[in-house]
């Protein structure tokens, strides 16, 4: 069992980084190669079985990896960019999320014939854009500054918002219905904002203070920052499920925009770590698919996906154009 665990971990890292390198050499999105590698190692050959390798710890490890990825994403977000793209970002993470939720829920209800309650929850889950997908695509496309900045802000901010929305919807649906909406929604949002923001500021402040006052040597700065990120993530989730993603994203934004210390070495380390984590996560998640999952891909499913892609392209264009950040043209088509 220990040997299979070591071989599995090695195979995941090897396959993920190899796919990244091939994508760089061939100048194609590495995300496509990572998906192909996961399919080959998982359902097609059965060589890689993440559930066997990681057991019950699989989803906990995935959550911690996503927390680090979101923190690194937060480090890359610049508040100065918001001067030009603020309205576009606000539209995408507010009106856009609502439209995505509604259209995805209606599509699941009418096209996939799911139960209305399940459709509402499914629509909330699909709100998440996912930095594990967006960041590799942005790195490959190298979009112009404003377009890339908008896509980066949306991809990173939508993840904690979508995760929180999914949890709140699940609690409402499992708690008795619409009568619980005000209590659950308000308390969940308030706890997330208060606990998440407070812990984010505390974690960032401790990291900055320790580095500025030389309380820790250079070789421990990156490990200490990771330790604080995981601590903030876990503590926030203790107060409100899935609020840890919001907390670590805020911690990244706060740390990345402060001026008291240089964090160039932290950013470089986190970028390298992010590549490793995204590569491994993609292989693991795709490898979890089975032939029965693939067999469920029917015409209604393909029609639903087509409807979802088309509707998202339409509302993104509307949101961006209405913000006047990109007058006269659609950046999403």
Helix fraction, binned, reads: over 70%
Structural class by SSE content: mainly alpha
Number of helices: 15
Rounded average pLDDT: 81
Can you write the helix and strand succession as a string? Answer: HHHHHHHHHHHHHHH
Radius of gyration: 20 Å
Number of strands: 0
Residue windows where pLDDT falls under 50 for at least 5 positions: 327-333
Shape: globular
**Gap between N and C termini, in Å?**
49 Å
Strand content: under 5%
Main beta sheet strand tally, sense and closure = none
Structural account:
The protein is mainly α. It has a domain at 77-274 and 298-322. 80% of the residues lie in helices and 0% in strands. The chain has helices at residues 2-26, 30-44, 50-54, 58-76, 82-93, 95-110, 116-125, 131-141, 145-175, 181-212, 218-239, 243-257, 264-287, 291-295, 299-322. Helix 4 packs across helix 11 and helix 10 (181-212) packs antiparallel against helix 11 (218-239).
């Amino acid at each position: 069992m220990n040997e299979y665990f070591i071989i599995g971990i090695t195979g995941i890292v090897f396959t993920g980084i190899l796919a990244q390198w091939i994508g760089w050499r061939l100048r194609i999105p590495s995300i496509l190669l990572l998906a192909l590698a996961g399919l080959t190692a998982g359902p097609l050959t059965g060589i890689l079985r993440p559930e066997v390798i990681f057991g019950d710890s699989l989803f906990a490890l995935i959550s911690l990896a996503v927390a680090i990825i979101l923190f690194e994403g937060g480090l890359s977000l610049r508040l100065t960019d918001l001067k030009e793209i603020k309205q576009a970002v606000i539209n995408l993470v507010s009106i856009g999320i609502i439209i995505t939720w509604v259209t995805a829920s209606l599509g699941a209800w009418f096209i996939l014939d799911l139960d209305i309650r399940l459709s509402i929850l499914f629509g909330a889950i699909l709100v998440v854009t996912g930095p594990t997908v967006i960041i590799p695509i942005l790195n490959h496309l190298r979009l112009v500054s404003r377009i890339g900045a908008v896509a980066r802000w949306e991809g990173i901010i939508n993840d904690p918002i979508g995760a929180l929305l999914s949890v709140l919807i699940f609690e409402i649906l499992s708690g008795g219905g619409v009568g619980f909406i005000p209590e659950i929604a308000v308390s969940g949002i308030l706890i997330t904002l208060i606990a998440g923001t407070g812990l984010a500021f505390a974690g960032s402040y401790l990291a900055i203070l320790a580095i500025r006052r030389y309380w820790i040597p250079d070789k421990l700065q990156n490990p200490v920052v990771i330790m604080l990120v995981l601590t903030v993530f876990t503590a926030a989730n203790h107060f409100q499920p899935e609020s840890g993603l919001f907390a670590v994203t805020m911690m990244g934004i706060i740390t990345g925009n402060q001026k008291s210390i240089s964090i160039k070495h932290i950013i470089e380390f986190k970028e390298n770590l992010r590549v490793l984590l995204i590569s491994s996560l993609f292989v693991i998640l795709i490898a979890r698919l089975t032939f029965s999952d693939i067999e469920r891909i029917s015409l209604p499913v393909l029609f639903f996906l087509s409807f979802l892609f088309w509707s998202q392209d339409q509302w993104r264009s509307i949101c961006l154009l209405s913000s006047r950040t990109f007058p006269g043209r659609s950046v999403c088509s």
